[in-house]
Amino acid sequence: MSPARGTRTRKTSATSKPAKKAPTSKHSTASELPADRPGIEHKVNLLEAMLRIRRFEERCVELYSAAKIRGFVHLYIGEEAVAVGVNEALTSEDAVVSTYREHGHALARGIPAEAVMAEMYGRTTGCSGGRGGSMHLFDASRRFYGGNAIVAGGLPLAAGLALADRMRAQRRVTCCFFGDGAFAEGEFHETANLAALWNLPLLLVCENNLYAMGTAIERHEAQTDLAMRAASYGMVAWAVDGMDVEAVEQAARRAAEAIRAGAGPHFLELRTYRFRAHSMYDPDRYRDKAEIERWKGRDPITRLMDRIREGGELGDKELAAIERRVTDEIDHAVAAAEEAPEEPVEDLLRHVTSASAEVS
């Protein structure tokens, strides 16, 4: 696999009235980085993007415990390398379809932390206007077509988006994230079959974290090599270390470039692990604590930090500055969400019924 090239840099400045001065950029500026160390800017972007997801979700745990965030919350902690690596291989013209565990996907796609946090609070400044909450983040302007609360529910939607692009002869990729639990659903097999049959520009990204809710993969799949099974549909498929953000990016870039060249659908099995329970309601009694600790030893954020240190590219002081920048951004997002307005009661039927059916 060749090194990644042409990586995009996204800006995520705050949009609503800030409670304090908002961070001006998602990424470091060139003046903050060593001029004699080529390539470090991209690594910093990857690291900062993963830290943004981790710190955002850690704050969500605190806010949920304080009853400021309600409803179901599914955390992505441990899987950050997947969202960041894959999104780095996509362009703004590509589409992303996600699952109910989509905070990381949304942030990596470039939706501002402020808009995602406001959605968690159910405020009107949220990316879904406060109506979606944790499981239904949506931003059509960034071609992020949502979290889906139904397991495998996003797969047919992704196939439709890819079919539309193919019919219009547009060289775009539709990327669909889903978990290993979705592999057991009919929607996956129907989508994989049609994608291969119609040669759709579809990137299927299976986040194999070894558990479908509380069921271990070996208890619901007779053959646990998911990439091999996906290849049986006649599409290119391979497995990748989902705890290594650079490996994920290279694999996703290779797949996306092939899809754009007309090679048809590709399947990536990204072998990863969630450090937290299935949801905030889950007591997490179905897996051994020692197993969790073993996987934490492969933390994708720590791995990239260690690689940067060992390469002499950045020191502890510079890495601490990145941490502070991310923390400030999340602090601002929380403060802005606290001040954002709730939807007025008289608007409850807006977007629910047609105008003629509204109750006066």
Number of helices: 11
Order of strands side by side in the largest beta sheet?
1-2-3-7-6
**Can you give the mean pLDDT?**
89
Kindly state the number of beta strands.
Answer: 7
Q: Helical residue percent?
A: 25-40%
The proportion of strand residues reads: 5-15%
Instruction: Tell me the series of helices and strands, N- to C-terminal.
Output: HHEHHHEHEEEHEHEHHH
Structural class by secondary-structure content: alpha/beta
From the alpha carbons, calculate the radius of gyration and give it in angstroms: 20 Å
Low-confidence stretches: 1-36
Distance between the termini: 62 Å
Shape: globular
Describe the main β-sheet briefly: 5 strands, parallel
Give a verbal description of the structure.
The radius of gyration is 20 Å and the shape is globular. Mean pLDDT is 89; it is low at 1-36. The protein has 360 residues and is an alpha/beta fold. Helix 1 (40-65) runs antiparallel to helix 3 (103-109), helix 1 (40-65) packs antiparallel against helix 10 (300-310) and helix 1 (40-65) packs across helix 11. It has eleven helices and seven strands. The strands form two sheets. The chain has a five-stranded parallel β-sheet, sandwiched between helices. The longest helix is centred in the N-terminal third of the chain and has 26 residues, at 40-65.
